[in-house]
TrEMBL record:
<protein>
    <recommendedName>
        <fullName>Guanylate cyclase domain-containing protein</fullName>
    </recommendedName>
</protein>
<keyword id="KW-0456">Lyase</keyword>
<keyword id="KW-0812">Transmembrane</keyword>
<dbReference type="InterPro" id="IPR001054">
    <property type="entry name" value="A/G_cyclase"/>
</dbReference>
<dbReference type="GO" id="GO:0009190">
    <property type="term" value="P:cyclic nucleotide biosynthetic process"/>
</dbReference>
<dbReference type="GO" id="GO:0035556">
    <property type="term" value="P:intracellular signal transduction"/>
</dbReference>
<dbReference type="InterPro" id="IPR029787">
    <property type="entry name" value="Nucleotide_cyclase"/>
</dbReference>
<keyword id="KW-1133">Transmembrane helix</keyword>
<dbReference type="InterPro" id="IPR018297">
    <property type="entry name" value="A/G_cyclase_CS"/>
</dbReference>
<dbReference type="GO" id="GO:0016020">
    <property type="term" value="C:membrane"/>
</dbReference>
<feature type="transmembrane region" description="Helical">
    <location>
        <begin position="172"/>
        <end position="196"/>
    </location>
</feature>
<dbReference type="InterPro" id="IPR050401">
    <property type="entry name" value="Cyclic_nucleotide_synthase"/>
</dbReference>
<feature type="domain" description="Guanylate cyclase">
    <location>
        <begin position="301"/>
        <end position="428"/>
    </location>
</feature>
<dbReference type="GO" id="GO:0004016">
    <property type="term" value="F:adenylate cyclase activity"/>
</dbReference>
<keyword id="KW-0547">Nucleotide-binding</keyword>
<dbReference type="GO" id="GO:0000166">
    <property type="term" value="F:nucleotide binding"/>
</dbReference>
<comment type="similarity">
    <text>Belongs to the adenylyl cyclase class-4/guanylyl cyclase family.</text>
</comment>
Length: 471
């Protein structure tokens, strides 16, 4: 169980772009630091190796000085050294030069040139050349006169020096890489557990929080895994701040959703109430800001219906019962108005007013009104049978020009104005119980489709005598 968990942890670190950047920077920083430390160490080792070669030349020079002090000729002494030259020695050759003239006096092996003149016997001059394969040391001998002063130049084989430095460099480089890898891996484990893993989990929690805040059900619980990773440091403060922000934002969104839902319900109720008062098209105009709404209609058909002797009945039964009876009857009439796609205008007491062709055109306004009148009479008959009553309707219908609209700013209603409305009302008031009386204008519109009986002329207030018909 531990191995898969460790592999999953390692794989997660390798997949993380942040962890890869941290690893690269840590590794490169360690390598740079080690290189900075290595360069002086490399130069120091190089100087030490060259110093070892210089000691060989110094031994030769010291021996020369000792013999010269005993009176031995330096040239003969140098020739003696040349005869003793060993090919396996680090000394590949030497040369003896006259100090005053720079003339070559004697030599052996690979002859080095006189590349520079030492200032005094205590300060030899060196030169490393031929890609580090040769190392020349020039030293001045002691003499009693200027003619006795010579310069001995010894050439050393420094190829072993280069091999040693290469080996040293590779060993240091391997050690640097090993240290960098170990320190980087250790850093990544520590940083991974303390920083990378919490950041990755925080990223996932951000996604979960975003989904929770945008989904249709904001009340559903969300499992945020960073709750188990909260630490007592700056990252822990960030995690705590995130959780606090998430819960506050979620609470605000939930409150907003509740408010929006309440507003939608209130708006729906308001719209429904408005539609119970006004036609849909007129209600929409009012919601858009229009106030004085009025429109002329050239031809509409108006129906007035009245319950016969209902006023007398109102004195005989309790008011609540009377209201219930009237509500039952008018509710049946409302359903019929919707069925025939007509517009109920209003009720006044026991009177019921309907119009066809307002506010939207109606293909057969006159026929639809006649059909409604017949259906209203049948509906009242059913009501009488169900409630053991004997109500009768008196219905009047007229067709003509009207103006329809909404006026006022309080308790406004959609209403009709015009002579055609008055005539329709007179058709009802001068009608007969359980009869449907229409004017000549309506008769001209529908007489081909319904059987009518000519009633004769009746005197209409303000209009005189008018022809009327009974359905």
């Amino acid at each position: 169980m531990v191995a898969p968990k460790y592999l999953k942890f390692t794989w997660g670190l390798l997949r993380s772009a942040l962890s890869r950047k941290v690893a690269c920077w840590v590794f490169l920083s360690l390598v740079v630091i080690e290189v900075i430390i290595f360069i002086p160490s490399y130069q120091s080792r190089k100087r030490e190796n060259l110093r070892q070669l210089e000691l060989v030349s110094q031994e030769l020079l010291w021996a020369t000085r000792q013999e010269a002090m005993k009176g031995v000729d330096i040239q003969a002494l140098f020739q003696k050294f040349a005869n003793q030259f060993n090919a396996d020695s680090v000394i590949e050759g030497g040369a003896l030069y006259q100090a005053s003239t720079g003339q070559l006096v004697n030599q052996f092996g690979d002859v080095p040139p006189l590349f520079a003149q030492p200032p005094d016997p205590q300060h030899p001059i060196t030169e490393l050349h031929s890609q580090g394969q040769r190392y020349d040391v020039a030293s001045m001998t002691l003499g009693f006169t200027p003619r006795d002063q010579y310069i001995i130049v010894v050439r050393h084989d420094s190829s072993g020096l280069q091999a040693d430095l290469y080996g040293y460099g590779w060993r240091i480089a391997g050690l640097v890489v090993l240290i960098a890898v170990v320190v980087t891996a250790t850093t990544m484990v520590v940083v991974g557990r303390l920083v990378i893993v919490p950041i990755l989990e925080l990223r996932q929690d951000f996604l979960r929080a975003g989904e929770a805040l945008t989904q249709a059900e904001p009340d559903r619980e969300v499992a945020l895994k960073t709750l188990a990773l909260i630490q007592d440091d700056e990252l822990g403060e960030v995690v705590r701040s995130f959780h606090d922000l998430f819960h506050r934002t979620r609470s605000a969104i939930q409150a907003r959703h509740q408010t929006e839902q309440a507003l939608r319900e209130a708006q729906l109720k308001s719209d429904q109430l408005l539609l119970n008062i006004l036609p849909a098209s007129i209600a929409e105009k009012l919601k858009q800001g229009e106030r004085a709404i009025a429109q002329n209609f050239e031809q509409v058909t108006i129906l007035f219906a009245d319950l016969v002797n209902f006023t007398c009945l109102s004195t005989q039964i309790p008011a609540p019962e009377l209201v219930c009876l009237l509500n039952d009857i008018f509710s049946r009439f409302d359903a019929l108005v919707d069925r025939y796609h007509l517009e109920k205008i209003k009720t006044i007491g026991d009177a019921y007013m309907v119009v066809g062709g307002v506010p939207l055109p109606h293909d057969r306004q006159g026929g639809a009104i006649i059909d409604l009148a017949l259906a209203m009479r049948s509906a009242l008959a059913e009501f009488n049978q169900d409630n053991h009553r004997n109500f009768q309707l008196r219905i009047g219908i007229n067709t003509g020009q009207v103006v329809a609209g909404v006026i006022g700013i309080k308790k406004f209603t959609y209403d009709l104005w015009g002579d055609a409305v008055n005539i329709a009302s007179r058709m009802e008031s001068h009608g007969l119980p359980d009869k449907i009386q229409i004017s000549a204008s309506t008769y001209a519109l529908v007489h081909d489709h319904y059987p009518f009986e000519y009633r004769g002329k009746i005197n209409i207030k303000g209009r005189g005598e008018m022809d009327t018909y009974l359905l």
